[in-house]
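Aim 2 progress update. The chain analyzed this quarter is reproduced below.
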Amino acid sequence: MSYVLGCLLFICVAPPPPHPAQNQKARAMGTPAPGLDSIAIFTQGLRPGLSNSGAFGPAVQQRLSLCHVQGSICSSGSREDRPELPGASLAPISQSREANAGGGLQSEINRVMTDKAGAVVLMDVASGKILAQRNINVAARRLEFPGSTVKPFVLMELLNSGKVNPEQKLMCRRPLYIGGRRMDCSHPAGITSLDARDAIAYSCNTYFSTVATRLDPVELAEVFKRVGFTSPTGLVTNEAVGRITTPTEQSQLQLQALGEWGIEVTPLELLAAYSSLARQKREGKDLGAATPVFDGLERAVKYGMAHGAQPVGTTAAGKTGTASGMKTALTHGLFVGYAPADKPEIVLLVYLERGRGIDAAAIAGPVITTWWKNK
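Predicted structure tokens:
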């Protein structure tokens, strides 16, 4: 009798096998990275504007790697954008931080920043006008390590000078030590080989610390000065300006290319730098050698480390960054990007005094969505 009851219970609760058509549909949505084929396809609710296709397909999911292999990702030494465990939400951004469709842009910014220290600034690309902001003076006066938000500018210099083949793939190494600091990547461990575009999308420290050595220390320092990281933005009065130190050792150069040494910028300087990128994209001209940079920023939001910034109804491109504070081991988080991705109208900065880039991206998504719905 107990055997019969056990069989009946199994029949009642066992889930039905997936229909072959479902498997075909899932495969059509993208090609998972090597080693990620055992993870469910992440659709983010098939929100408008989101493509799950790409070189690695829907590889990064909110707790995707949740430890696709809890040991490999959750135990890795990198701080950047690693989901917090336990207790991190499994809900996609459209469920966990749905935009305030009935409210205005400023009220939405206030809502998503409730109980959070930091700043949000949203600017019109064409006019340079600030459309909405919270704590812009904090963004103008706080000097921080920018973390991975500087990687697009490093890559752009390497591409324009012909020192990097964007199609060449480099192996991601773990553990990664630079100058005695462990700087492991935080993207899924199954992603082992990346070209220039996906190095931006997945913010690969190995890739950038390797190719950065093709620049000499003076070149790298000049790149950051040329971008505007030592100049006032002119957006507010009494703003601080960044400081760049010229590396004297290879390890310093590599860490500087990761935004973790010898470079202090204000969040507002980052906004101005990405506004320049947005204007280049908006002009619609041939981007030439820099095209992989812009492709990588779009992929970062579509399926990479900045996926939380994906808005509803439109597209976006951008980059996250996580770094230790200047005087503390605690990390701050950044997201800087623009929308729509193909012809930018706005550029957005999210700076969290305590957090990670992934947290900043999760705030950016609803803000961009509200701007799009109310524009």
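Residues 357-374 form the longest helix (18 residues). The first strand starts at residue 118 and ends at 124. These observations will guide the mutagenesis experiments scheduled for the next reporting period.
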